[in-house]
Specification:
452 residues; alpha+beta; 4 domains; five-stranded antiparallel beta sheet; 12 helices; rod-shaped
């Protein structure tokens, strides 16, 4: 756009200069022709002689009244030379500002030589009867040179503006169109598309506005879908949770009232109640995960300084034991860390991450293959990973991925990281937390609270 504006300015400047020269030189050529025309100059001088005679008669002037005569010359922009043949007195009056009357004595031959530079000699009679020979010089015509010069500058300025405005009229109209269209967007109609013209900065601006408009629409559509999905999930879970809850209440009532027939039946009812409770917990966790991923819930993290060995042992003992009791083959490689190092973590949320990962093992892992649980310590962080073989290719396709997104959000809130790697049928998930050392070496953090 800068190039276009510069080009428009240069073209307008060339046209303006041409107008300036045309008016100035054309006017000068016209005035030169008038001055060179004896007929024209004689007519002007004759007209001035008649006007001067009227002035002399009205004022009753004498030849000696030089002040009044000089005043007339200045007003009419006409110089006058008067010659009294009897006294041989020559009176010269000029129309120029600041000039004075010049009086001298010359013979007629000298006066005749003076008359060679004018057109026509005229007779003027003063109120005392003195008659003189007069030469008139119509000086006003020379002022027109200045008028034409001033006019040429005015014409140049007007032509510059007109040409420049004509050349950029398209851009101005485009700006007006964009202004009207932006007002439509301000009114809330984000479906309205801003006009894109050309390939300059205005086009880039319009394109950027359209991209931003589309991004807002996509985000609104995504939020709408998320809200609808959450609503559908809450509705479905509210309905589905009633079935296990009703069963659980029924079995608990039977156990409380002792209406079972044997100890074996009692243990059976307790196991069923336990399964129903876990079923309800899974539904509630799923609801929590959707709320967390879609940003509908705010959680406060209470970060604590804990030893790496302590946090891993406390968290893994229960989970690994459950898997072993369920006849899973577990391979633990937990020796790759130093117990004297510490991390900042919220134990409850970290436990939630591990619960989610180990729950996925029960759902999607191949029970005939080993589940490898490892802990490795780097220079500034400690990583905990779980690797297993997928039961079948379609297993992961049935997953919504919400649990993994929940884990990622939790780890990021604790200044850690969450990574998923899949190679053929091997699935590996790794979580990382930054280290702090007792001596203050390495990366340090202060206990505090994070929110998501």
């Amino acid at each position: 756009m800068r190039v276009e504006l510069l080009f428009a300015a240069l073209v307008a400047l060339v046209v303006a200069y041409g107008c300036h020269i045309l008016v100035k030189e054309g006017g000068g050529y016209y005035l030169d022709g008038l001055i060179a025309s004896a007929e024209y100059m004689y007519g002007k001088n004759e007209k001035m002689s008649l006007r001067f005679q009227e002035y002399v008669d009205d004022k009753g002037l004498l030849l000696e009244n030089t002040g009044e005569i000089l005043h007339w010359c200045r007003e009419n922009k006409t110089s006058v030379t008067l010659y009294n043949s009897k006294t041989q007195g020559l009176y010269s009056y000029y129309s120029f500002l600041g000039s004075q009357a010049q009086i001298s004595t010359v013979d007629e031959m000298a006066f005749e030589m003076t008359g060679e530079y004018t057109t026509g000699e005229f007779a003027i009679q003063f109120s005392d009867g003195v008659r003189v020979r007069a030469l008139f010089y119509y000086d006003r015509i020379y002022n027109y040179y200045d008028y034409f010069y001033t006019g040429s500058l005015f014409a140049a300025g007007i032509s510059f503006l007109l040409v420049f405005m004509m050349l950029i009229a398209r851009k101005i109209n485009y700006i007006r169109i964009m202004d009207k269209e932006l007002k439509v967007l301000e009114g809330g109609d984000l479906e309205y598309e801003v006009t894109e013209l050309g390939r300059d900065e205005l086009y880039q601006l319009a394109r950027g506005i359209n991209e931003m408009r589309k991004a807002v629409l996509r985000r609104e559509e995504e939020e709408r879908r998320n809200a609808q999905a959450n609503q559908e999930l809450v509705t479905a879970l509210s309905h589905d949770i009633r079935t296990p809850m009703t069963s659980l209440i029924g079995y608990l009532e039977i156990l409380k009232m002792g209406r079972y027939q044997s100890e074996e039946q009692k243990e059976e009812f307790l196991e069923i109640s336990r399964q129903k409770a876990f079923q309800m917990k899974e539904m509630i966790d799923k609801l929590f995960e959707y709320s967390l991923v879609t940003g509908k819930m705010e959680e406060t993290y209470h970060m604590e300084r804990m030893e790496v060995g302590t946090i891993l042992s406390a968290i893994l003992d229960g989970q690994v034991s459950d898997l072993l009791n369920e006849e899973w083959e577990i391979e633990e490689n937990l020796s790759g860390y130093t117990s004297r190092n510490y991390v900042m973590a919220d134990v409850e949320f970290f436990q939630r991450v591990l619960d989610n990962l180990l729950s996925n093992i029960r759902k999607y892992a191949d029970k005939s293959a080993k589940v490898v649980i490892e802990a490795k310590e780097g220079e500034n962080s400690v990583a905990f990973s779980i690797r297993n073989r997928v039961l079948h290719e379609e297993a992961l396709g049935g997953s919504t991925g919400v649990g993994l997104k929940t884990c990622q959000k939790i780890m990021e809130a604790m200044n850690g990281s969450f990574q998923v790697k899949r190679t053929k049928n091997i699935y590996c998930v790794s979580v990382t937390l930054p280290l702090i050392c007792p001596q203050g070496a390495g990366r340090r953090q202060q206990p505090g609270q994070n929110k998501i």
